[in-house]
């Protein structure tokens, strides 16, 4: 058997690997654009589902025969049933190709057509005329972009909620554990560790709400716009039927009732939702950074937290434990910040009727969502879940802090309180020693006013 077969497209004959399901346009693209990462399989599967829905819609509108339509559906079902590893074999194209995603759309059309031929060689299925009927790369690819973005968000949201739940367990456990507060990286009045955690929880709850509030903008699909948004060659009612069928497949509330000129030329929906991912990344960076600082030590750092020992921390220093999950989160956050620039710049390039930065935009979006989903899950399970408080160290730092003098201010005044703190610092004494030496209050008064838990406004009896 020959190693290659020859097929023709509008530019002439092309040699294609004999066993490949793709056709000449895919082969040209494979050779013309060999650089970068593969097109995400989520996009491929979305395009297959779009082609399946289109075939069903075309049959319902009598735009294609049931014989052809059913064969296309069967071919697509067989492809969708493949594992990612097997599916990848016939989808070899890279992200860095034409900015409309045309090569990947044609890759999908060609593979479906060849798979249909394998199933029933007596019925001719053509990539452009049948599989792509009533469609254009210009409307199918942006439709796939929105669908896979929503799919990725459906994986991210439970991960964020899981972290919130883990933090809430710690919040309740440590609500009465007093520690030093810090502002400007300097000692401040005390709070409890539970209160500190509540701030992190609130930030993540807001982030989750931002995503949920903004994601419905992605429900609007470009399908039906075809080449420039006019809907040329799309059967009447076809876009609505495709949106309905995709909604059933993905469990989403998709709609084709949208401005198609906007759908082809603009990706502001993806841009604004990625902005919410960037905000989540920023809050995760802050949380991870705080936790690893508070866990620094164990003897020469803050040392307020004990973190799980997930793996040896050093190739040269025995017994070292590093905050690796926190480091993974912070690195992922940096990548998301960079991807946000990519998404914003790509979204801005909708010259006239068509944005031609689609593949790089959706690749960056999906990478951000995937990185956040994975690192947040790891952070929750392998850092927060096993994290404990070093209460002895927290108590020691509170006792040594001079800023607890703030509790004296309502009783003896700001200036006298400041003098006590300065005197304690200068003499290297405790705050209590300096306060009693000042003659401004008695030991009984000091002990009453310097109730650390009371200073945090946490109810001791609850």
Percent in strands: 5-15%
Helix-strand pattern, N to C? EEHHHHHHHEEHHHHEHHEHHHHHH
- The N- and C-terminal alpha carbons lie at a distance of 80 Å
**Helix amount:** 55-70%
Assembly state (oligomeric): single chain
If classified by CATH, what would the architecture of the largest domain be? Up-down Bundle
Q: Which class of the largest domain in CATH terms?
A: Mainly Alpha
> SS-based structural class?
mainly alpha
Largest sheet, strands/sense/barrel: 2 strands, antiparallel
CATH overall fold name of the largest domain: Fumarase C, Chain A, domain 2
Number of helices: 19
User: Biggest sheet, strands in spatial order?
Assistant: 1-2
Topology, number of strands: 6
Provide the number of structural domains.
3
- CATH superfamily placement of the largest domain: Fumarase/aspartase (Central domain)
Overall geometric form: elongated
Radius of gyration: 30 Å
Mean pLDDT over the full residue set? 97
Low-confidence stretches: none
